[in-house]
Design a protein that fits this description.
The protein has about 280 residues and is mainly α. It contains 15 helices and no strands.
Length: about 280
């Protein structure tokens, strides 16, 4: 499975989750923040949660999701890794496991194996892949107990990637997204994403995420411009879906319907299409 297919798979899960009213994660409004007295216990709880999440933790539900037949190859590689003694052999098996989990659209375990590869060879590509997979895992998970580990993993990976290539826009974008997802440094994350679009105004990933963060914080006019920039460069069902949602929030029904229709054309899935039809029907009534 190539990078494009993995990204599409993650986008499908994320959008379907939105369709079925799963909560969007992102910037926390000031009224939702906790006072200083609560910060220390929460930080301790987060640290404990992060340390308890391992590759085994995320692999178990991933194996259930993909089924027994697809799990056979992965478990064979796991057994080899458990018995491996040399660093070269372990590195090779970690690479194979990362790729194997990518092949079945499971970013969480893949992220941990890419991290193991990166810690072994300190390569930019491995750190970047690890960070991207952690961000992907955060985007689609419904288990809030796992999100602190995904955020921590993403920040570590992208920080190391930017140390190796300080001007790389993909690494800066990923780090910006991770900061905003974490909630502790949202403005630092937004600043990184804005730095990316200042250098590359049409950057798809940075504009998409800036659009999502604008949408989640109620800045719908800004979100529309971001999504339009994405669509002009790379039209896909995900950007059209979020554009439609933004138009709907602004009460611009004809524009929302048109964007939903375009989204439906680009995602020929019966369940997805039925849900979109319901949204369109509600807007027409």
């Amino acid at each position: 499975m190539n990078k494009k297919q993995i990204v599409v798979a993650v986008a499908v899960v994320a959008v379907m989750g939105y369709l079925y009213s799963l909560p969007l994660k992102g910037i926390v409004k000031p009224s939702q923040t906790h006072d200083t007295a609560q910060a220390a216990p929460q930080a301790a709880a987060k640290a404990a949660s992060t340390s308890n999440v391992t590759v085994e933790t995320v692999s178990a539900p991933a194996k259930t999701a993909i089924g027994a037949s697809l799990t056979v190859k992965i478990e064979g590689l796991e057994n080899q890794l458990n018995k491996a003694s040399g660093d070269v052999e372990k590195l090779s098996l970690n690479k194979q496991l990362a790729a194997a989990w990518d092949d079945v659209d499971q970013p969480a375990p893949a992220a941990f194996y890419y991290t193991a590869v990166a810690k072994s060879n300190n390569s930019f590509d491995a750190w970047l892949m690890a960070g991207n997979r952690f961000n992907d895992a955060f985007k689609i998970t419904q288990d809030t107990a796992l999100t602190p580990a995904f955020i921590t993993g993403a920040v570590e990976a992208f920080t190391n990637a930017t140390k190796l290539k300080p001007e790389n826009l993909d690494a800066k974008t990923g780090l910006g997204v991770a900061y905003v997802n974490g909630g502790a440094s949202p403005m630092q994350g937004i600043a990184l994403l804005r730095e990316v679009v200042a250098k590359d105004p049409d950057n798809v990933n940075a504009n998409l995420n800036l659009g999502l963060f604008s949408m989640k914080s109620g800045q719908f006019d800004k979100a529309i411009q971001r999504f339009k920039t994405v669509i002009a460069k790379k039209p896909d069902f995900e950007s059209y879906f979020y554009l439609a949602e933004t138009y709907k929030q602004l009460g611009q029904k004809p524009e929302a319907i048109a964007a939903y229709e375009k989204c439906k054309q680009m995602m020929p899935n019966p369940v997805f299409g039925q849900r979109i039809d319901q949204y369109i029907k509600e807007l027409k009534n």
